[in-house]
Specification:
heterodimer; A: alpha/beta; 6-stranded mixed beta sheet; 9 helices; B: mainly alpha
Chain lengths: 248, 222
Amino acid sequence: MSMLSIHNIKKSFGTTEVLKDVSINVSKGDVIAILGPSGSGKTTLLRCLNFLETADGGEMVFDGERFPFQNVSKKDIHRIRNKTAFVFQNYNLFQNKTALQNVTEGLIVARRMPKEQAEEIGKAMLDKVGLSDRYHHYPSQLSGGQQQRVGIARALATNPEIIYFDEPTSALDPELIGEVLDVMRQLANEGMTMLVVTHELGFAKNVSNHVIFMDSGVIVEENSSREFFEHPQEERTKAFISHIDRKS
Amino acid sequence: MNERVWEILLDSFGKILLKGLEVTLPLTIASFAIAIVIGVVVALIQVANIKGLKQICRFYVWIIRGTPILVQLYVIFFGLPSIGIVIDPFPSALLVFGINTGAYASETIRAAIESIDKGQIEAGYCVGMTYTQIMARIVLPQALRVAFPSLFNILISLVKDTSLASSITLVEMIRQTQYVIARTYEAFWLYLEVGLIYLIFCTVLTKIQSYGEKKLSSYGGQ
């Protein structure tokens, strides 16, 4: 049974239709890679799922509960966000907080967890992403790869049912991409449910179990990741894969 | 400059400085405190885009920035008694300088809030924080650091602007100086002297500002 399904989501910015009737299903433990050229709507899709953008139509079924995008209360948004987590392309760390405070903020402030308990979890999460020696560093004192790993630790701390990754490695220098992908691979192996918008074909091929290829606001093709790369069906998919492969 | 002038200056220096410490300084600090509170509230209302209140805030900033402080002082001190509201010189000045400076501070703070990257607000939402929590814990602390030099600039202006309160009979440094001039007719030297005392005040504030900026020099020293 799917943990999260999206039915016919639509979104326009002005007269530009960014998402046209997109539907997806996510089961527990799925690692789904969403691929597609820039402007294909994949980031907007992810942002709508966490209500950072308001979709114009469609609905979400999450843990058996139905939420029409156009008619969802603030309280429900808050509830859904408390069960999910988001990792941003530009990390979006709280600049006035240390790495540890970034991770514990959501626990202490939003979930009213005692500080000691939150710090224990925060340290454990930072250890997990390999930042045991950076608890008290501010974001400005960390490299991009380290900042993104703090971002992932922050996402993990709230024990979410699913983590949305919005191009988590696109802002990184090439030599820093590996350390972030390693952490994501580790999470996938541990069974974390992940929806990952990415340009990393290697990740899609080797880590994700399912691939969605989007273009111009629609899903062009989706399949298990092995089938997707070994036997792409659509011309646009083939062109995209060979184009990206050539670049890397 | 003869010996008599020297004596007048030495004699008056303490008196004028005393008014500075007793009146100018408390008036400045209290007005500035009021201004910061007004500034933060007015800025947040505008950033949060609260319908109705936002228009009131824009109107407030428009009126206050568009009229001279002197007029505002006159309206409060000389104008209000005609409708039966009488306020003493010091509270009148406090009210006017607080409200006046608040309008300028609000614009500075609003700009600083808007300079903070919106991504942090989204991240706050995503970890389950409310708008109020995000503003109070993430955005405002950063914005006030950004605004610090400009706010200090406003404070330094305010020290000197309080001299206008002499026009509503408040005995601060300027009015005290004028009393001495009325007795001695040494306007040139005494006005230079009071100017020097303002300069001393502002120099001390400037030192505090650069110390503060160093202390605040951004999280983890960017």
